[in-house]
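Annex B. Sample input.
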Amino acid sequence: MASSGLSLDHLSSWHSKWSDLKVAVVGLGKTGFSAADTLHELGCSVLVVADKADPAIVDVVEVLGIEHLVESNENLQLRVEDFSPELVIVSPGIPPSNPIVARALASGTPVWGDIDLAWRLRDRFIENQEWICVTGTNGKTTVTELTEAMLLAAGVRAVGCGNIGKPILDCIRDPAEFEVLVVELSSFQLYYLENIQPFSAVCLNVAEDHIDWHGTFEKYRSSKGRIYDGTKVACIYNLEDQSTENLVEAATVLDGARAIGFGLGTPARSNIGYVDEYLVDRAFLEERADKALEIATLDDFSGMGVLSPHLLSNIAAATALARSFGVPPAACRQALRNFRVSSHRIELVIEKDGVKYINDSKATNAHAASASLASFENSVWILGGQLKGVDISALIEKFAKRIRAAVVIGLDRKEIIAAFQKFTPNLPLVEIVDGEEVMTKAVTAASELAQPGDAVILAPAAASMDQFASYQDRGEKFAAAVKKIVGGNSA
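Annex B, continued. Sample output.
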């Protein structure tokens, strides 16, 4: 693949001359398809390559007449080299070590993610569209959805998109003319990010995750920090995670951008937090030196379910983002009263005989699982799956006194069991070997170990793809097994 030597600086708008640009799109999931479809609409010459794809998506690509090759061999790279693209668009999750991506980077061919492409095309229907960007090891989706809800409650045409599951390019091309995109960004998307200018941005927290992809924790952390670069108004950081403030300090932001902290304690000036049962703002009011603005009370959140410290932190973060855009307290409060956390996130399935059964299948890393374990005094913990190169020994050591028993499932069971044997050698431990009805066996074992006052928690601290179609599938199987085995009234 020869370097094109072509500057793409002139391609800064939907209305720029994109026609005849040769673009290779790597990956054909939701994001890859949205990129290929967008570029095809712009008149580009598009080649899509992927090692696998949903047949339904392939059918649509064929109907559109977009050139494509779906194979799992070196033919993909050879086809891209023959195509000689002037731009490569890489789908999230495809690492820079991918031969096609590595060759493009080495040759000087521009490599963008869908976020960079969307930034250049954001004027499709509206000239002054703003982006509010969200990342973090844990809590991204809740904060994205809640920020969107607060903006909508204030009458702002807003939508959550990106890593949340709705491709950002679909929202760019939506004739609804969104004024604000609330963009959830994964570390994969941030790794490839070049130049955007968010209105406001937040990194909720940083803990070890995706080390297998990034290579080191520092590279993962560095990718997360890129969310703050170019921020115009507010860099929101977690007062209880010093690394997020460090990332703000290291960022290159626009003149006038402020650093705003959020947390669970009484907020100092320029922060958002809690005073007794009140959520208060000392950041976005004129008299912040000596006054606080009441946003809502804990009663306003009561319909969300388990008010864990993690959820309260997410509420404060979303409030900071919404307030940075001028959303009034009444609209924030209305959104909080109506908001419901997505399924599979510290979700009460059933309480029976004094035992709570908690579905936190979305806890795909140790930091997320920590939020669940911290929410209950005593637990029977169901965990395991693909650890993604992360050592969860510290998590086990931290919560050893709260864990009554553990049920271990999934691919990386040996590493998990070894950690339990090191830190809690006398803990009742059940290993579920691979096979059919994994979750049924796990729930059966956990229910037999649980005592009144305990919580049986599915918080895997690992990815799901070794045994389940997705974390949603894992959570649904857990909930179904609980209802079948335990019975009783659902919450």
